[in-house]
Amino acid sequence: MLSAIRSHLLPVIKLYLLGLKVLLAQLFSRCFRLPVMPRQDGKVAIVTGGSRGIGYEVVRHMARLGAHVIIGGRNEQEGLAAVRKICEEYKEAKVEFMKLDLASLQSVRQFVQCFREQDLPLNILVNNAGVMLLPEGRTEDGFEQHFAVNYLGHFLLTWLLLDTLKNSGKCGHFSRVVNVSSSAHRVSEIRLNDLNSSQCYSAHAAYCHSKLAQLLFSSHLHQELQRGGFPLSSCAVDPGIVDTALYRHLWTPLCMALSVIARLLFWTPAQGAATILYSALSPDLEGENGGGYWANGRREMTTPPAFDPQLQLSLWETSLQLLGLQ
Ligand SMILES: NC(=O)c1ccc[n+]([C@@H]2O[C@H](COP(=O)([O-])OP(=O)(O)OC[C@H]3O[C@@H](n4cnc5c(N)ncnc54)[C@H](OP(=O)(O)O)[C@@H]3O)[C@@H](O)[C@H]2O)c1
After folding, report:
1. Of 315, 313, 317, 324, which Cα lies nearest the Cα of 141?
2. Element (H, E) at 176
3. Which residue's CA is minimally distant from atom 37 of ligand 1?
4. Under a CB-based contact definition with an 8 Å cutoff, are residues 98 and 115 in contact?
5. Is the pTM of this model over 0.90?
6. Residue 282 and which of 12, 34, 97, 253 are 20 to 30 A apart at CA?
7. From 3.40.50.720, 3.40.930.10, 3.30.420.40, 3.90.1150.10, which CATH number describes the 37-242+273-322 domain?
8. Where does ligand 1 bind, in terms of residues with CB under 6 Å?
9. Residues 151-165 pLDDT 10s
């Protein structure tokens, strides 16, 4: 009984209390407004999950600034509709859709293969796609779904694109990896011996776990890149509480109530995109100033596990093993 409460009820309570705290903070603080960003002509960006929600606004803004943006997504119809909409709005926009299902390691490899065939540079990678509160299930590769889509698929994607990212950056114009995490990481801990949540499944805990894993990955990658002296940085961003379809798997009555509250109190997808765009494009984060964890336009400190170098390394090595890399 006690262990059931600890594993099922506690993550729910922790996440909703955190959500309430973040929402109150959002209500009583001013939402970050993105300053005018430099033109991005000649730059190439990949945005995962860029067909809707926060990712769509990131793609739209980058395209407006002249970047060539590739939306990586699993739903072709939705992706092509997003491309059409942006191209109707900005006649000069260079946006395309490429199939990418982060729940499938094979699909990630195919996506990278197709991208490489285009022989393009890659200046910005935004690991944005995400799922939340899915019922227990495994991907075709046998991984828990939140862990696979939010974290491991993005780990593999970044790993396979690393050389292109490194080669596309130069002094004063670093390439950038932006990992869209969440404040939900604050109520989680990394279970290295149970990354797949097999011992006891809680959808709430699985989401928070995947978002903490993303943060650890982002920090470790950044340090490795700095140590190697590569013109590439990696940072993590919390977009805030934003009115998107991410919440659609919530318990139905709560979801219905939330859809009303969300319209009134949550940030819009464009507001949620602001800090992501800032981290991806701002000259303020150039070179040595890159990296870190960003929320509402500011670099933030977060919970100790996120900055534990030993934990970062252990997760990194375990992930490589799980992916059969190295
Ligand atoms: N909304 C918030 O309040 C909030 C708060 C903190 C963090 N975040 C983070 O922000 C990011 C964007 O979320 P959002 O709020 O914009 O949610 P959203 O509207 O649901 O967008 C999520 C995107 O990810 C894509 N996606 C899901 N599974 C995928 C897969 N297996 N392969 C490829 N693409 C996949 C979705 O496309 P499909 O059509 O294929 O599902 C969709 O385009 C997520 O990482 C989320 O965790 C959001």
Report:
1. 324
2. strand 175-180
3. 49
4. yes
5. yes
6. 97
7. 3.40.50.720
8. 48-49, 51-55, 73-75, 78, 100-103, 128-132, 149, 180, 182, 238-239, 241-242, 244-246
9. 999 999 999 999 999
